[in-house]
Write a structure and sequence with these properties.
heterodimer, A: alpha+beta, 5-stranded mixed beta sheet, two-stranded antiparallel sheet, 7 strands, elongated, B: alpha/beta, 6-stranded mixed beta sheet, 17 helices, about 25% strand
Chain lengths: ~350, ~475
C-alpha cells in the first residue's frame, strides 16, 4: 500500500498548506509584534527558513517528479516509449495510477504477442508462396533431378518440408537457440540452390571456460527471431551485391544477456534511413501503411515481439555502412528454463 | 561467464536543439579493453562525461554493474565508479604518491592519518601488480608513465572498475606506452575494464579486445576481436594523404644542422634539415620536442655541440631572436596555446606580422590587402570579432595561416596531428602541405609517428638522446608494416 505522500496531488496540498501557514504567521507577526524587536527578528528568520525549505522540498518532490512524468508522457505520446508510461516515477493521484494500471491490464500482452507471431508466420509464409521463391526452389529441384538423380530431390524436399514445419506447426513462444539455428541452416540450404556459391554462412560462438557451445545452444529465444533477419540480410544486403556475399551469425552470452549479431557484407543501408530505422526500433511500433513503405517490417516485427516478451531493455539495433555491410544486433535476456511469462519486462529488466 | 560492467541502451543526449549523442548502444564487459576510435569528435567529450557521471539524458538507459544508474525518466547527477586518465594530471603534485592515493580519494573521511599503514597498503598493491614505484616519492618527480600508473592505482583502490584512458599516447612515449599496455593487460585479468580512447586505429588495435567506431555522436560499428584489422576499418576512414604537390624533396642544402648536441637528455644528437624539406623527428622518449624547442628559441644553450642555421652558427643570441631569423614554432595543442580568444580573427592572423615588417603598427592598407588575400581561404569568419565561436577546423586553419602569412624559412611543429579527430587531422596535414608547397622547411617533433609520415620526406628516430635510424619516404612502407 502506497503512502499518501507518494502522490503529487497530496504533496501539492501539503506544500500549499505550509505556504499558507507561513503567510498566516507573517500576518500575525505584523499584528502582534513590534517592528525591530528581537522576537520579531527570530520569528522572521524562522519563517524565512521554513519558506525556503518548503520551496526547496517542493522543487525536489513536486516540480522534478512532475517534469519527469511529463517527459515520459511526451515520449509515450510520440511513440518513443511503451513501458515507461506504466513506470511513472510519481503519479498525480491514486485515481490516475489506477487508470494507468487498468489501461495496462486492458492491453492484453498475450494477444499482442500472438498477433505479432502470427504476422511473422504470415510474412514467412507469404515469402514461401512468393512465385519467385517457389519457382527458384522448384527450378533447383528440377536441375538437381536432371543432373544428379533422385537423392538430392529427396534432400531438398525434406529441407523444404522441415522449414515449413518449423515455421508453421511448432507452438509456443520460446524455442532453443539450437532449434532456431537448425532452421537457419535449413533455410540456408534451400537458398543455396538459388544463390549457389554466392552465399556463404558461418556460425560462431563466443565461448569461455564457464560457457561452451552446448550451453549457448540451450538458451531460449522467441521462435522465428533469426530467420526474418537472415532473410533480410540475403534479400536487401547480399542479393543485389556483385560477387560473393557472406553471412555471419555470432552468439555472445553474458550473465545478463544473450547477444546475437547477424552480419552481412552486402549493400548496407544509407545513413539517414538507418538512423530512422534505429529510432523506430527503440520501442514498440504499430505498423501502419507508411511504416510498411519505409521497409524493415520483418526486423521491426522481431523487435516488437522481443520487447513485448522481455521489455524495452531488449530488442534489435542495427549498425550499417553503405556498400560495406550491415550488423543486426539482437539483445535478449538469458533464458534457460520454462516459457517466459508475459509480464512487461519485469523479469528481464530486474529494475 | 562474461559479465557486463556498463551498458548504454538507446542513449540520446541533446544540448539545446543539437543532438550530441544519437541512440548509443554498446556494452563493456568486466575485464575487457574496449577501444573508442573517434572518427569525428562531436559529442565525444559529453559521451565520456556521461559514462562517469549520470547527467540528464533525453532518452535511453545506462546500467553500471547491472544496476540502472541513469535513465530518461530520472538522472540523479551522481558520479559512477569510473576514472578518467587524461593529459592533465588528476594528482596533487606537492603530495606524495601514498597521500594522493589514500587521502585525496573520494570517500576518505579520516582525520588522523597513519602514514605507515597507508604505505603498507600501497606497497602490497604495487607488489601484487609487479610495479616498482617508491610510494613516498612526490608526484612532481614522477615520469608520465608513473603518473598514469599512480592514477590507475588510485582509481582501483577507490573501487573504480572502469578506467577511461583518454588519448594517453599524446603524453607518454612509445616505450612508456608499451609498459602501460602491459599493466592494462595485467589489470584486465583482475576484472578491471578499460575504455581506450584514441584517434589512431593502429594504436587501439595493439591493446583492444573490441573497438567502437564513433562519429558525430553515433557508434557506426563495433569491431570484434577478430575484426581489428586495417581491412575492416578501411571503409570507415578517409585517406590522410594531403592534397597538394606532395613532391619528394631533392634540394641538398641544409637549413638546420645539429652536430653532437648535448643538452639535458640529448647525448650528442646530430641531424640536419634540408631547405624545403619536411623532416619528422620521432623521439621514442618524448623529450626531444621540448628540449629542441628550448634550444631553438634561446631558452637555453647546448652544453656541448653546435647548431647551425642556414650555414651560420646559431648560438643563444641568435636563438633569442628566432622569429627574426625566420623560425616559427607552433606548439603542441596550438588552438589552446597559440591563439588569443579575446582577439579578432584578423588580429590573430596578423599577430606575427609586426615582427616580420619591423613596425609595431600595421598599416590599414596592409590589413586590407591581407584580408583580400585570405578571405577566399578562410571564408566569412575572417571578419569575426572574437574567435571563440569558431570550430576546431577553422581554428587550426588560423594557426597555420598565421605561419603562412609570416612565411618563415623554417617552421617547427610540435606534435601537429596528436589532437583532433580524423577529419581534423586530414585538414591539418593539408595545411602543413600548403606550407611545404611554399618552400618552407618543416621540422615535426613528435613522440608518435602516426599520420605525420603522410606529409614527411624523411624520418629520423631518436632514442636515448641520439638519432638511431633514418628513413626516406620510399622506405616509409617498411615502418608502417
Amino acid at each position: 500500500m502506497k503512502n499518501k505522500l507518494d502522490y503529487l496531488e497530496n504533496r501539492i496540498r501539503l506544500f500549499l498548506g505550509a505556504m499558507t501557514g507561513i503567510t498566516a504567521g507573517l500576518y500575525l507577526l505584523t499584528l502582534f509584534l513590534e517592528t525591530g524587536t528581537v522576537w520579531m527578528k527570530v520569528v522572521l528568520i524562522l519563517l524565512a527558513l521554513a519558506g525556503a525549505l518548503s520551496i526547496y522540498l517542493a522543487y525536489r518532490h513536486i516540480y522534478l517528479p512532475y517534469q519527469e512524468s511529463q517527459k515520459v508522457k511526451t515520449l509515450f505520446a510520440n511513440g518513443m516509449t511503451y513501458n515507461g508510461i506504466f513506470e511513472l516515477p510519481c503519479a498525480m493521484s491514486r485515481e490516475d495510477e489506477a487508470v494507468f494500471r487498468r489501461f495496462s491490464e486492458m492491453l492484453d500482452t498475450q494477444k499482442l504477442i500472438n498477433v505479432s507471431k502470427k504476422e511473422a508466420e504470415y510474412l514467412a509464409l507469404q515469402n514461401q508462396i512468393n512465385p519467385h521463391f517457389l519457382y527458384n526452389t522448384l527450378e533447383g529441384i528440377r536441375s538437381e533431378a536432371l543432373l544428379a538423380g533422385m537423392d538430392s530431390i529427396a534432400e531438398m524436399t525434406e529441407a523444404l518440408s522441415t522449414f515449413f514445419r518449423y515455421t508453421i506447426s511448432q507452438t509456443g513462444n520460446l524455442v532453443t537457440l539450437e532449434n532456431e539455428l537448425a532452421n537457419i541452416e535449413n533455410y540456408y540450404y534451400i537458398q543455396q540452390f538459388r544463390f549457389g556459391d554466392k552465399l556463404d554462412l558461418s556460425i560462431e560462438y563466443d565461448t569461455d571456460e564457464d560457457l561452451d557451445e552446448t550451453d549457448i545452444l540451450n538458451f531460449k529465444l522467441p521462435k522465428l527471431t533469426l530467420q526474418p533477419v537472415v532473410e533480410n540480410a540475403i534479400y536487401h544486403g547480399i542479393e543485389s551485391k556483385i560477387g560473393k556475399g557472406s553471412l555471419k551469425i555470432r552468439m555472445t552470452a553474458t550473465k545478463e544477456h544473450l547477444i546475437i549479431r547477424v552480419s552481412d557484407d552486402g549493400m548496407g543501408i544509407p545513413q539517414e534511413q538507418l538512423r530512422q530505422l534505429n529510432k523506430r526500433l527503440r520501442t514498440l511500433t504499430i505498423e501502419d501503411e507508411s511504416s510498411r513503405k519505409k521497409g524493415g517490417i520483418a526486423i521491426q516485427n522481431v523487435n516488437n515481439r522481443i520487447k513485448l516478451l522481455f521489455g524495452e531493455s531488449c530488442g534489435v539495433y542495427i549498425y550499417s555502412q553503405e556498400h560495406v555491410g550491415t550488423d543486426v544486433e539482437i539483445t535478449l535476456p538469458v533464458v534457460t528454463g520454462v516459457e517466459y511469462g508475459y509480464v512487461y519486462g519485469s523479469q528481464a529488466e530486474g529494475e | 561467464m562474461k559479465e557486463e560492467l556498463i551498458r548504454f541502451e538507446n542513449v540520446t543526449m541533446r544540448k539545446e536543439k543539437e543532438i550530441l549523442l544519437d541512440n548509443l548502444n554498446f556494452y563493456i564487459l568486466k575485464g575487457e579493453i574496449m577501444a573508442l576510435i573517434s572518427l569525428r569528435d562531436k559529442g565525444r567529450e559529453e559521451f565520456l562525461r556521461l559514462i562517469s557521471q549520470n547527467l540528464p539524458i533525453e532518452y535511453g538507459k545506462i546500467y553500471y554493474d547491472g544496476r540502472l544508474v541513469n535513465g530518461y525518466i530520472h538522472s540523479d547527477m551522481n558520479v559512477n565508479r569510473v576514472s578518467i586518465i587524461q593529459e592533465k594530471s588528476g594528482l596533487i603534485e606537492s603530495l606524495s604518491i601514498a597521500d594522493n592515493i589514500f587521502i585525496m580519494r573520494k570517500g576518505s573521511k579520516k582525520y588522523i592519518i597513519n602514514e605507515r599503514v597507508l604505505e603498507g597498503q600501497m606497497v602490497r598493491f604495487m607488489t601484487e601488480l609487479g610495479l616498482n614505484i617508491d610510494e613516498a616519492k612526490h608526484v612532481a618527480g614522477l615520469s608520465q608513465r608513473e603518473r598514469v600508473i599512480v592514477e590507475i592505482v588510485k582509481g582501483i583502490l577507490s573501487g573504480h572498475r572502469l578506467i577511461i584512458m583518454d588519448h594517453i599516447s599524446n603524453f607518454v612515449n612509445q616505450a612508456q606506452l608499451t609498459a602501460v599496455f602491459t599493466l592494462m593487460r595485467e589489470l584486465k585479468k583482475k576484472g578491471i575494464s578499460f575504455l581506450y580512447v584514441c584517434n589512431h586505429h593502429e594504436e587501439a588495435f595493439r591493446i583492444a579486445d573490441r573497438a567502437l567506431l564513433y562519429m558525430d555522436g553515433r557508434i557506426h560499428k563495433v569491431l570484434g576481436k577478430d575484426e581489428l584489422t586495417d581491412k575492416n576499418i578501411e571503409p570507415y576512414i578517409i585517406p590522410l594523404l594531403p592534397s597538394g604537390n606532395n613532391r619528394i624533396f631533392r634540394d641538398e642544402n641544409d637549413i638546420l644542422q645539429l652536430y653532437g648536441v648535448r643538452y639535458k637528455h640529448m647525448l650528442g644528437l646530430s641531424f640536419s634539415l634540408k631547405k624545403g624539406e619536411c623532416l619528422t623527428l620521432l623521439d621514442m622518449d618524448n623529450r626531444a620536442p621540448k628540449e629542441i624547442t628550448e634550444l631553438l628559441t634561446g631558452e637555453a644553450a647546448p652544453d656541448e655541440g653546435l647548431i647551425e642555421f642556414d650555414g651560420r652558427a646559431y648560438g643563444r643570441a641568435e636563438a633569442l631572436r628566432f622569429l627574426e631569423q625566420g623560425i616559427v614554432v607552433v606548439p603542441d595543442e596550438p588552438i589552446e596555446n597559440y591563439l588569443f580568444y579575446e582577439q579578432s580573427y584578423m588580429e590573430n592572423l596578423t599577430f606575427l606580422l609586426d615582427r616580420k615588417i619591423g613596425k609595431s603598427i600595421i598599416k590599414n592598407s596592409y590589413l586590407k590587402s591581407i584580408r583580400r588575400e585570405y578571405e577566399p581561404l578562410t571564408g566569412p569568419c575572417i571578419d569575426e570579432e572574437s574567435i571563440s565561436g569558431l570550430d576546431s577546423k577553422q581554428l587550426y586553419s588560423l594557426v597555420y595561416y598565421r605561419v603562412h602569412l609570416y612565411h618563415p624559412r623554417m617552421a617547427v611543429l610540435i606534435q601537429p596531428v596528436a589532437h583532433g579527430d580524423m577529419y581534423c587531422r586530414k585538414h591539418i596535414l593539408d595545411l602543413i602541405q600548403s606550407l611545404k608547397d611554399m618552400g618552407i622547411s618543416i621540422l615535426i617533433l613528435t613522440n608518435s609517428v602516426s599520420d605525420n609520415l603522410t606529409v614527411s620526406d624523411r624520418l629520423i628516430v631518436v632514442k636515448k638522446g641520439k638519432s638511431v635510424a633514418e628513413y626516406h619516404r620510399d622506405e616509409f612502407g617498411l615502418i608502417r608494416k
